[in-house]
Amino acid sequence: MDIKAFKMDGLGNDFVIIDNRQKITELSKEQIVKICDRNFIGCDQLIIIENDNATDARLKFFNSDGGESGACGNGTRCVADLISKKKNNKTVILSTLSGNLKSQILGKNLVTTEIGNAKIKWNEIPLSSELNTKNLNIKIDDLNNKEHFGGTAINVGNPHVIFFVNDIENFDIAKIGPQIENSNMFPEKCNVTIAKVINKNLIKIKVWERGAGLTKACGTAACATAFAGKLNELTDNNTDIEFETGKLSIFIDDKSSIHMKGPVSDIEEISIKL
Asked: When you count CB atoms within 10 A of the terminal residue's CB, does the N or C end of the chain come out lower?
């Protein structure tokens, strides 16, 4: 099987994108895992584009473990840029499991997407039992084995927990991430973010993604972190979220809807032989 596809990334958060609107293929979970394997093609997530009568297209997101994800902010921005070039349209609306997402093409390789409203009720995250989502009081240890308690749970299409700490370099997210992702507290697992507030308009973070592991950037994690910062009165409505690979700009409007702006890469055409 020879499949034409595209590779794109947002701040290094990379994707293989297959336009399946002509229904050219149906992939098994094993094939999805193989495509995401960096010894084969390699990506953080596989995105399938399908037809949708009400929007420009429907998106399906698959993590590198083969599991489907409800949302992907950077992936949505990449596909919006791809479709806008084909349709010569600066506004693109895409359907996802988490709802319809509207994107605007602001310029070359610059896209903003409205993610929508965050969910903060315990059963919307979801959690396995009723807890205070603003502070889950989860214990994590730093590299000096000093205990830190916290964790704000936010759902922005998929579940996230954010820990605000004094020094993100003092925490091993590759160790902490999978422990919390697979905790019984999160029946659908979760994404894990370690965050340091620099000022009211800047947060530095590291992210462990559910089903994908350590990634260079994560759009929904940026949105969840900005909202958690606002919820905890640590930041303002406009917040830059900084990864090692660059920044995403997050704006929370007066209706509490979250908007994410950032760069996308050029489009690379590839061929997948399965």
From this structure: N
- Judge contact between 223 and 250, C-beta under 8 A: yes
Give me the chain's average pLDDT, please: 96
Which DSSP letter does residue 266 get? P
Task: Say yes or no: domain 138-255 is CATH 3.40.50.1820.
Answer: no
Long-range CB contacts (within 8 A, 24+) of 231-237:
231/120, 231/134, 231/152, 231/154, 232/134, 232/152, 232/164, 234/164, 234/197, 234/200, 234/203, 235/197, 235/200, 235/201, 235/203, 236/200, 236/201
- With cut-offs at 50, 70 and 90, classify the pLDDT of residue 256: very high
Read off φ and ψ for residue 151, nearest 5 degrees.
110, 110
Closest CA to 91 of 104, 73, 108, 75: 104
pLDDT in tens, 190-233: 999 999 999 999 999 999 999 999 999 999 999 999 999 999 99
Distance CA 227, CA 152 (A): 10
Question: Amino acid identity, residue 114?
Answer: E
**Which of 232, 210, 234, 233 lies closest to 221, judged by CA?**
210
Written as one string, the DSSP assignment of 18-76 is EE-TT------HHHHHHHH-TTTS--SEEEEEE--SSSSEEEEEEETTS-EES--HHHH
Which residues does the annotation mark as catalytic?
72, 218
Q: How far apart are CA 153 and CA 195, in angstroms?
A: 13
Domain-wise residue ranges, the chain: 2-117+262-273, 138-255
Q: Please determine, looking at this structure, whether the domain spanning 2-117+262-273 carries the CATH number 3.10.310.10.
A: yes
C-beta of residue 21 within 8 angstroms of C-beta of residue 30? no
* CA-wise closest residue to 261 among 118, 103, 116: 103
The whole-angstrom separation of Cα 82 and Cα 186 is 34
